[in-house]
Amino acid sequence: MRYLDEYRSPLAVAALAAGLHADRHVKLMEVCGGHTHAIYRHGIDTLLPGEIELVHGPGCPVCVIPMGRIDDAVSIAERPEVIFTSFGDMLRVPGGRRRSLLEAKARGADVRIVYSPLDALAIARENADREVVFFGVGFETTAPAVALTLQRARELDVRNFSVFCNHVLVAPALRAILDSPDTEIDGFIGPGHVSTVIGTRPYEFICSEYGRPVVVSGFEPTDILQAVAGLLAQLREGRAEVENEYGRVVRRKGNPAALAALEEVFTVRDDFEWRGLGAIPRSAYRIADAFGAWDAENRFEVPGARIEDPKACRCGDVLRGMAKPYECRVFGTACTPEKPLGTCMVSSEGACAAYYAYRRVA
Amino acid sequence: MRGVLRVPESRVSDDVVTLAHGAGGKASRRLVEELFLPELRNPLLEPLGDSALVSANGTRLALTTDSYVVRPLVFPGGDIGELAVNGTVNDLAVSGATPIALTAGFVIEEGFPLDDLRSLTRSAARAAAAAGVAIAAGDTKVVERGAADGLYITTSGIGLLDPRVRLDAARVVPGDRVLVSGGIAEHGIAVMIARGNLALELDVESDTAPVHRLTAALCALGDDLRWMRDPTRGGLATTLNELAAGARASVVLQEEAIPVRDDVRAACELLGIDPLYVANEGKLVAVVAARAAEAALVALGEGAAIVGEMRADDLPLVLAETPFGGARIVDMLVGDPLPRIC
Amino acid sequence: MLERLPDGLARVDFGGVRRSVSVAFTPEAQQGDWVLVHVGFALAMLDEEEAQATLRLLGEAIDAELSA
Q: What residues in A contact C58, CB-CB < 8 Å?
């Protein structure tokens, strides 16, 4: 594919890595699950000098869904009239009492993996006698797709389709992390694909209010290393600005058409529970009243329970960059990708899953 | 790599069989080791190879069986009839045997069209002829509408072991090379296309094919040929994990050397699956002594590649090295991305 | 992008695999353009100039290292 190989050139990677140093211990948070995965897949952190530490932030939308909401999803899926559609990586996430969607499927629930929310709408149109529900999960990268799908559902008057909305917003989560008293993050590697939608403006508060630099980065090894270089330069020069390393697809103003769709279809919830981070105000979407007929929470009763994480689970600490996966007592023992206790282990973008896949203990 | 975590095997009891148990990965292995093996325990079964090796009056034979429950029954590049023959021929072939005869059991759902049954049987016959074997015995059963999803086929096979080879993962030594006979992940992708819920267009066909001619060519290497297997459910990754465990040595792969067609790789990326875990039906993995690697490549023909080598290790793993000098651990398949793949 | 289709869709090639995606968010995309696709939607067009600029920076980093 074009414009891919050059960004992976081993020569460029080595050259960039060699140019990186800091004069003190520096902690840089990468926010996006895709970045976590790219870093561990390519071993980028092993290329960095010891004084530069990468910590993982809450950029995995699968990981931050609380167990109570999974239980709600499972309770909808278990209804005989429902075809429950979802992205693949949500299937193994454990809920509380009611376990995961995959386990519900093993016990007879009609749970189907789809690549796009439009595919779920198509299933609804092909199965007029069933109720089709789509599990809306993801940041602002995915929410516009769901918004458009809801617009289409209304346009075509598809009555048997609804969305169980769990979309969350990146910027409020970053603010919550910065507000947390034990946070020691010096700079942020900004999410790549969310930024194609929201642009780079939403990160400006990190610089103006908290004095930390941000560099929005692509997903290739050279992108990430260039972003680290940019952050180190800003720290050296005492600057705190939003820079865009991923200019080839990210613009400051984002994508106006996508933002307009979000504006029309969703409203921001007063607060929403994030797994491991607690309740964060104005950090998640719910479906606007104009589209209320397609809101699964209006159509189905759900338990709505607030379930405590297992005591041993340190997903919250990992998500806030306060702990590394291997510092969690149950990492790799009671908590594995096969039998996850916490969602950082289940999603392929979760920090624990990435560490486990590469068997990292240091 | 900085540190390696020793992960203890978790022994968990599920109270019902799930689709994960049929995926060919960790759960499948556990089902065999924790349920079937203790109940059936006998020395012929314990090696858990693709075929059992039995001796009768001094003649060494290979014996194997496999069931085919693929859905849908017909897919780009093949159908269940062809799969059922090639799959069993291959299990015999990678055990170092020349296939002699097969049996075929058909479990048919009431209402299944006779024309379709005829067509699938014809495919099986053609595949058997191409592989030089006879389907010597068979059985049919019919079950009520709603069971059997159209058709299930079980084939058993018997073959004559080649005296030149003694295939055993325990014979593998550090420095031995690991080869693959061609591009991976094609069968799994072809079946996914046939299931029709992907909305992707691509021209990938199942690679279902008999590999007995390739294995016979490799058997000419004699003692230099250590071990072979056909990587079906669970993909190349699962097979290599079995190798690492059996050889008690690590398999070190070069990520870039693993042959994958461009469009197969693109499809896997779109779907978020790793080609290493996707099923194959016409490929084989072979471990040979380093000095025989070039000869083995020639024997396997076009598309084959040396993908890695064996390395001494306290903790046998499958490792894939990237061009940047990083390495990732390729674990056995967890869960089931693609049920009913073969 | 291989071709525009009716109803706000386009047929896109991902290195040998083709699929229809929605171009509701990239209405200006034309045949031959490169787009970033997520869950069946084109989210952004590849900006050639920016891509070249990034590659130039990489080239400079390599030169700097080789001459160091």
A: 6-7, 9, 12, 15-16, 222, 226
Q: Please answer yes or no on whether C54 and A144 come within 8 Å at the CB atom.
A: no
CB B279 within 8 A of CB B264: no
A143 touches C: beta carbon within 8 Å = no
A112 CA to chain B: closest CA distance, Å? 10
H or E element, residue B86: helix B80-93
Q: What is the pLDDT of residues A214-259, one digit of tens each?
A: 999 998 888 999 999 999 999 999 999 999 999 888 999 999 999 9
Residues of C in contact with B267 (CB under 8 A): 14, 16-17
* pTM, rounded to two decimals: 0.81
Query: Boundaries of CATH 3.90.650.10 in chain B?
Result: 169-329
- Contact partners, residue B219, CB within 8 Å, separation at least 6: B96, B162, B164, B165, B225
The CATH code of domain B169-329 reads: 3.90.650.10
d(CA A139, CA B336): 26
CB contact under 8 A, C18 and B265: no
User: How far apart are alpha carbons B55 and A321 in whole angstroms?
Assistant: 61
CATH for B51-161, options being 3.10.50.40, 3.40.1410.10, 3.30.1330.10, 3.30.70.270: 3.30.1330.10
Residue B304 token pair? 């084959």
With beta carbons under 8 A apart, name residues in chain B contacting C16: 202, 261-263, 266-267
Class of domain A5-60+185-192+210-244: alpha beta
Our CA angle for B166, B172, B176, nearest 5°, is: 120
Question: Tokens 């009611």 identify what position?
Answer: A98
> Which of A8, A333, A359 faces B329 most closely, judged by CB atoms?
A359
Which residues of chain B does CATH 3.30.1330.10 include?
51-161
pLDDT per residue as tens digits for the range B244-271? 999 999 999 998 899 999 989 888 877 7
